[in-house]
Specification:
The protein is of the alpha+beta class. The protein is built from two helices and three strands. It has a three-stranded antiparallel β-sheet with strand order 1-2-3. The model has no long low-confidence stretch (mean pLDDT about 70).
């Protein structure tokens, strides 16, 4: 869903999700890997309880 947007709106949407603590950013590697938090998983529901990783350069 985020891949079809331009970079500025994607950065804005990711910042909003990080501020709401729905996703966390793992910046230990050279890529930012965004993973759903417990709050994000429970917001999506139990049937979608898989961690989603988004590579963003």
């Amino acid at each position: 869903m985020l891949l079809n947007k331009n970079i500025k709106s994607t950065q804005n949407r990711l910042a909003v999700l990080v501020n709401k603590k729905m996703i966390t950013a793992n910046k230990l590697t050279r890529k930012n890997i965004y993973v759903l938090t417990h709050k994000g998983n429970s917001f999506l529901g139990r049937e979608h309880k898989k961690s989603i990783k988004i590579n963003f350069y």
